[in-house]
Amino acid sequence: MARRLWLVWWLVSGVSVAAYPLLPRGDHLTNLAYGVAGLGTVLLVLLGVRRNRPDRPALWYWLAGALLVWFLGGVTYGVETRLLHHTGFPLVADAFFLGAHPVVAVGLWLLLRAQGRDRGGLIDACITGAGAGLLFWVFVMRPVVEATGTSPVQRMFVLAYPAVNVLLMVLLARLLVGRAARTPSFRLLAAGVTLMVATDATTSVVSGSAPDPGALLQVGWLLAGLCVGAAAVHPSARHLADPVEQLEAGLSKGRLTVLAVSSLVAPVLLLGQGLAGVDALDWLPIGVVAVVLFVLVVVRMSDLVGKVQSQTEQLSELAMRDDLTGLPNRRLLEELIRDELELRGRPQVAFIDLDDFKRINDGLGHAVGNQLLAAVGKRLGGVLRPGDVVARLGGDEFAVLMPDTGQVAADALVAELAAALEEPVFAGEHHLLVQASIGVADAEGTRDPFEILRRADVAMYAAKEGGSRQERFRPELDERAAEVAQLGAQLREALDQGQFQLVYQPIVALPHGEIAGVEALIRWHHPRLGFMSPADFIPVAERNGQIVELGAWILLEACSQAATWIATLGTEAPGKVSVNVSARQLAEPDFAEVVAAVLAATGLPADRLAIEVTETAVFGGGRAIEALDAVHALGVRIALDDFGTGHSSLGLLQTCPVDILKVDKSFVDDITMAGRHSVIAAALINVSDGLNLEAIAEGVETAEQARELYRLGYRYAQGYHFGRPVATPQFALQSTAA
After folding, report:
1. For residue 695, how many other CB atoms are within 10 A of its CB?
2. What is the mean pLDDT of the chain?
3. Which residue ranges does the record assign to the GGDEF domain (predicted)?
4. Is residue 379 within 8 Å of residue 420, measured between CB atoms?
């Protein structure tokens, strides 16, 4: 019911106000209706305070008090004119009418105070008030001052009405450009005050005094009270004084128009009076107002300039900071390095790259990855000395600037950084272990901050490739980096020109050595350098991403060849072809789709293909395991290569969809020696049998090793003893039976 009360009041009162001009003037019923409407508005405001319980009821009580004073003025006016037959101006009622305005002003001031400080809005309101005040002076107040036959009391009242109206205009303008929420209660209250000011201003302009203003003007006052009462009883009045959390209101087109018109009032009036030939120009008030407006505009412009400068500084600061960690970004770090070079010239820079961050990001989600990056930033900052700076360059890359630091001290600090990152890091609910590769560089022989960062980056990649975790830049690393870059370009040419070739190494069944399958291996016959080992170019392809395209070519070529063998050799064709897949390939979101497309294009049955992955490629789970699950669902077999040498080999058997274990060569080399050398190989075949997995022993080079493996329970093997990788293997019974 409370939510509808304001609407009922609005409808009933609206109809009554609309009918008021139709009532006979001077009739007692008309006067009674006018008085009842005023008193009803007062009671409605008090009812609204009681029902809505606003956070700041004082402002409503002041507004109710203003309406009560206005109501008393109406009653007094009726008594004086209708019963006592008093005429003239001023009447006692004018004291009430005039006194209602300051009470309204107090209520508006309380509302404005609750909105907080807004210097710009206050200045804009003063500019509007100054322009309006000058208009009132020229057209209302000055004629009264110069008029003859008026008493000082009459002049005082006639001048007071426009003065208090100007005050209300300033407060209203300040309210409209302020931070109050534009709720229905706010809009109704603003409409009521606007009607009040407009009606009073019209009365002052039309009459020049305060005689009976007529029914239409009384309707304006009634509508003003109607709006204030509806604002009080509306449910949104409960939070009328709550400020909106936002920046200072901007200069909209409408606001700029009002300010421009107000600022032009003084010169336009002066120009108009001059063109009209007015003898006594209002040069003094116009000049005073012009000076006031000029000062206000200057102050406003100063505030705007200061605001723009402040926002520019904030934007500059934001542009120099990483959004996620709040650390300096690459741009700010480069400036700090440049400043250090100019000041002392001895900066050391450490370039830090987190290992396997993509695995964590893919496996646990970007939210956890972001929390990890923020935690790593804090961890690094906790190790630094005063004056050192840690920055986030992007992704999982950080950098540390060590000003005025020698090589020994820098290396010691970098060792502390590396040690700090070896401690577990909390990211949300996860307790994560991270490691980092760190490259260090100084400014020897250069004054370019970009060059120092490049050197540190080169050293970091050298640390990552060498497994040393920490590496200092040396000139020869540039040579290696240049070779890697050149090799990457040559890889691109090799892919385009078909310089790669696949060779196949047999996988045999023990004890007789029948070929059960083959493993596809890539070879590169460089047109200038000759044969290149995969160990020389595969890491480069992994680093620059070309392994994805190269791996897709290997998969297509191997499956095509296997399908050809099946079509031409029938039962003598190898049972399966194994293809090695890198961690970078598994990270691609469409890897399973690529495998499915290759099988469809070549016609190779899915169970004749095996995908070989290393333990390190799937150790972190996440996207890699999801990719293997999708491939396994196609019917493709999954083999764990180099099994037994990874971080948690047995644990992978629970998370990875494994069909084949390829036992690492290190467990085969000494298997024929007495003692403990065959224990692990024996344990691994027991694990395979227990989990119903196929075990393949790798790196078999002698018949003795083959016989011992067979004795331990191995039924499949691979190695030089059974055949080296060749492009066109002969699929017939081997003479190298165990």
Report:
1. 24
2. 80
3. 345-475
4. yes
14 pLDDT more than 70: no
* Both structure tokens of 386: 């005063």
* Phi then psi dihedrals of residue 276, to 5 deg: -80, -5
pLDDT per position as a tens digit, 210-243: 444 555 567 777 788 878 888 888 888 887 766 6
Helix (H, G, I), strand (E, B) or coil at 365: coil
Instruction: Single out the residue of 534, 513, 517, 516 nearest to residue 525, CA to CA.
Output: 534
> How many other CB atoms sit within 10 Å of the CB of residue 199?
21
Give dist(CA 696, CA 685) in Å, integer. Answer: 9
More confident residue, 363 or 448: 448
Q: Is the pLDDT assigned to residue 249 strictly greater than 50? A: no
> Is the Cα torsion angle 371, 373, 376, 381 positive or negative in sign?
negative
Question: Residue 100: CB partners within 8 Å, gap ≥ 6?
Answer: 66, 67, 69, 70, 73
- For residue 81, give the amino acid letter: T
Query: Per-residue pLDDT for 524 more than 80?
Result: yes
Query: Residue 105 contacts by C-beta under 8 Å, 6 or more apart in sequence?
Result: 164, 167, 168, 171
CB 127 within 8 A of CB 296: yes
Nearby residues of 611 by Cβ (< 8 Å), 6 or more positions away: 578, 579, 581, 595, 628, 631, 636, 637, 638, 639
Ranges 27-36, 669-678, 715-724, 729-738: which has the least confidence = 729-738
CA of 614: how far to CAs of 274, 519, 581, 620, in Å?
A: 95, 14, 8, 12
In which band, very low, low, confident or very high, does the pLDDT at 684 lie, cut at 50, 70 and 90?
confident
> Both tokens of residue 134?
């000058």
Ranges of H-type helices in 570-622: 583-586, 591-602, 615-618
Q: Sign (positive/negative) of CA torsion 375, 378, 384, 387?
A: positive
Distances (CA, A) of 348 to 117, 283, 418: 48, 71, 16
b/e per residue 2-13 (b: at least 16 CB within 10 A) = eeebbeebbeeb
pLDDT tens digits, one per residue of 183-197: 888 888 888 888 887
Give the Cα separation of 723 and 733 in Å (integer): 12
Q: Which of 35, 45, 37, 44 is nearest to 14 (CA)?
A: 37
Query: CA–CA distance from 541 to each of 427, 476, 522, 549, 695 (Å)?
Result: 32, 21, 13, 9, 30
Alpha carbons within 13 A on the beta-carbon side of 42 = 16
Q: Which residues contact 30 (CB under 8 A, 6 or more apart)?
A: 20, 23, 24
**660 Cβ contact list (under 8 Å, min separation 6):** 610, 637, 638, 639, 640, 693, 694, 695, 696
Q: Alpha helix (H) ranges present in 115-151? A: 119-136, 142-146
Percent of the chain with pLDDT over 90: 17
Q: Residue 696 pairs with which residues in a beta bridge? A: 662, 716
